[in-house]
Amino acid sequence: MVNNFYQLRHALAVGLLAVMSATAAQSQSIQQPTYNVGDLWTHRLTDGWTGKVKQETSQTVIGLSGEFIRVNNAVKTLNPQSGQLAAPTLNDASQRSNFNFSYITNGQVSTRVNFDWPLVVGKKWTYEHATSSSSALATPVIFSYKTNAEVVSYEEVETPAGKFKAMKVVHKASWKESVNNEGTQILTYWYAPLAKRYVKYTFETFSLDGLPGTKETTELMSYIAPM
């Protein structure tokens, strides 16, 4: 009887800790980040099929203006001939500080809502957006997306930059192309408040019959905050 009592008490204690841990995770509320001039992130993009590094991008905040930030991008892309990353190409660009992106397609503005702040486990949202790809030799192709997004967990994720507590946000989208192709895609972000950016991101595409296409993983290599 005594052993059974202690076993029962231990089981109840373990169960209570699990409930408390789950409740703590559920109660986490991550606010939109505040940036500083000099914030610097370096991410590495890897092909999921071959494991080869395809790109390395460094972004440095160089200016702040209300809801916008100005960043300097230094992008190193894989040279297929040499198999090495090429010298970086540089450009400056403006971004929304909430890390959502807007597109202008056929004169219409639509927004990809990567994060619906504040981030809380269980939060869901939907959105629609459209993009276009054009060529001097072809009619622009319009891609239309319908997406369901959800914050599924607050968990630890390991990256080359270290371990971070991060909100895992999953976007499941169906897409249609103006030339009658269609399919689905899954985008998964791990947003870490300590780094003020996603520290890991995976991107997968599938044809209408479920055939997998693009598989990519982006991970944080380093984050430098200004002194």
CATH topology descriptor: YmcC-like fold
| Main sheet: strand order | 5-4-3-2-14-13-12-11-10-9
The helicity comes to 10-25%
Estimate the mean pLDDT confidence.
88
Global geometry: globular
Largest sheet, strands/sense/barrel = 10 strands, antiparallel
Supply the CATH architecture: Beta Barrel
Order of helices and strands: HEEEEEEEEEEEEEE
List the domain count as a whole number: 1
Rg, alpha carbons: 21 Å
Strand fraction: over 45%
CATH class: Mainly Beta
What attributes does this structure have?
227 residues; mainly beta; YmcC-like fold; two-stranded antiparallel ribbon; 1 helix; 14 strands; disordered N terminus
Give the arrangement of secondary structure elements.
Blueprint: H1 2-27, E1 29-30, E2 40-47, E3 53-65, E4 68-77, E5 89-96, E6 101-105, E7 108-112, E8 119-120, E9 124-135, E10 138-159, E11 162-177, E12 182-192, E13 197-207, E14 212-224
Antiparallel strand pairs: 1-8, 2-3, 2-14, 3-4, 4-5, 6-7, 9-10, 10-11, 11-12, 12-13, 13-14
What does this structure look like?
This protein is mainly beta and 227 residues long. Helices cover 11% and strands 61% of the residues. The strands form 3 sheets. It has a 10-stranded antiparallel sheet, with no helix packed on it. A two-stranded antiparallel ribbon has the order 1-8. β9 (124-135) and β10 form a beta hairpin. The chain is globular, with a radius of gyration of 21 Å. The model is unreliable at 1-25 (pLDDT under 50).
